[in-house]
Specification:
Helices cover about 40% and strands about 15% of the residues. By secondary structure, it is of the alpha/beta class. Helix 1 crosses helix 14, helix 3 packs across helix 5 and helix 8 packs across helix 12 (about 340-355). The longest helix has 19 residues, at about 85-105. The two termini are about 20 Å apart.
């Protein structure tokens, strides 16, 4: 079984450096746990080292991962909370430009929006790179919280050569809202070896829950767009009607965890809920679940939804963003409107009263992930995109034909 995360720091660029390899500098603000961070680590760890030479650059150290997951280059030791953050940000741009000058990448891939893209575009002004790629992984409604942020991102996009999105919904947003045309979509991938129906969890035993209990859960960082309040409101009704039900929430605090705890306590559901702080090992949660419920009002695609699908769990999910590209209603799961606790209750009771339907949905979900959303497919799509994007620049890179032939022969 392959690990969810990357090898130890310093292993990423191991091997003999070759001018025939395509050098890619990946930039991300930090490696704190989340779906985008896991996807980046998966992508880098599985790139074909005969063709690509990656370098991982972060703006600051992770506050949530150990030293095993340090980047190859970290631009600053300071956290975001510092009052000197504008000066630190300028310092990171300067250090990033120096790193680009030393590494001489053919591709600079800014893996997240907002700060990461602006920092990358600013550094690339001082140290030009043949190809600057940006990512749109979530809707602008989630992170463009001010005119300044909107202006800064659009300014940075002026230097971008190509944009990658993780769903058709986000691609439409980029083209319609921002008027950007050179956009491609590569769906996220899931490690079907790590996430599978035969996974084992001690969670039920630790909580004193038996097979008579029905456990519903969600893996999502505690932030407003995930709408944990809808999950809890629905949980109250479900527990009243089905006293054997129990509930699990797993994620990192992004500002709403305290409100979630207060709502659970106010509704008298403390004994029925288990909150797991952190999300480094979500594969230990899914096996304990009978139902997976996603209540987000906005999703780029839904990493955790795909992971639960890979585990063969019956899915109830809001019909938002890329989720509708991952699930056909009543084929791989049940899609419901956002901000609708009553729809959650109705869908959950359907599956509780008809366990066979749940098993059928879960089996179909597993097959869909295996056939359409594997890590291997995601990595190969990125490799093809990189090679073809460089080829379209029509630059005199002697290694490109060899890289293209090597990739096509795999």
């Amino acid at each position: 079984m392959q690990s969810l995360d990357r090898p130890e720091s310093g292993m990423m660029t191991e091997g003999i450096s070759s001018p025939e390899r395509i050098r890619i500098a990946y930039v991300i603000h930090c490696l704190d746990t989340g779906g985008a961070e896991r996807q980046l680590l998966q992508l880098i760890s599985r790139l074909d080292r005969n063709i690509f030479e990656p370098l991982l650059i972060t703006g600051r150290p992770s506050m949530e991962r150990g030293t095993t997951y340090c980047a190859d280059v970290t631009l600053s030791d300071a956290s975001n909370s510092s009052v000197m953050s504008p000066f630190l940000f300028a310092s990171r741009i300067y250090k990033l430009a120096k790193t680009l000058r030393s590494f001489r990448p053919h591709i600079l891939h800014a893996f997240l929006e907002e700060r990461t893209l602006f920092m990358s575009a600013a550094a690339e002004m001082f140290q030009p790179v043949p190809l600057l790629i940006a990512n749109r992984r979530s809707s602008v409604s989630v992170y463009r919280t001010s005119r300044w942020k909107t202006w800064a991102e659009r300014l940075a996009m002026g230097r971008v050569d190509a944009m990658l999105t993780i769903s058709k919904a986000l691609r439409e947003e980029v083209t319609c809202l921002d008027g950007y045309r050179n956009v491609e979509t590569i769906h996220i991938g899931t490690d079907t070896g790590l996430f599978h129906p035969d996974g084992h969890s001690e969670l039920r035993q630790e909580m004193g829950w038996t097979n008579q209990n029905i456990v519903a859960g969600m893996v999502a960082n505690f932030r407003s767009c995930k709408r944990h309040e809808d999950f809890i409101t629905a949980a109250q009704v479900l527990h009243q009607r089905h006293p054997q039900m129990r509930f699990v929430l797993m994620g990192n605090d992004r500002g709403t965890l305290e409100a979630v705890k207060q709502q659970i306590q106010k509704l008298g559901l403390d004994r029925e809920f288990k909150i797991i702080s952190g999300s480094l090992q979500p594969e230990l949660v899914y096996p304990a679940l009978d139902l997976y419920i996603c209540t987000s009002e906005s999703e780029g695609f839904g990493n955790a939804v795909l992971e639960a699908m890979a585990c063969g769990k019956p899915i109830i999910a809001t019909a938002v963003g890329g989720i509708v590209e991952a699930i056909d209603h009543e084929v791989e799961g049940l899609l419901i409107p956002p901000q609708s606790p009553e729809a959650i209750v109705a869908a959950a009771e359907r599956l509780i009263e008809n366990p066979e339907q749940g098993r059928r949905l879960g089996a179909a979900a597993r097959v869909r992930v295996q056939t359409r959303h594997s890590i291997a497919a995601m990595v190969r799509a990125h490799e093809s995109f990189y090679i073809e994007a460089l080829h379209e620049l029509d630059l005199n890179f002697e290694y490109l034909p060899r890289a293209l032939n090597a990739h096509e022969s795999r």
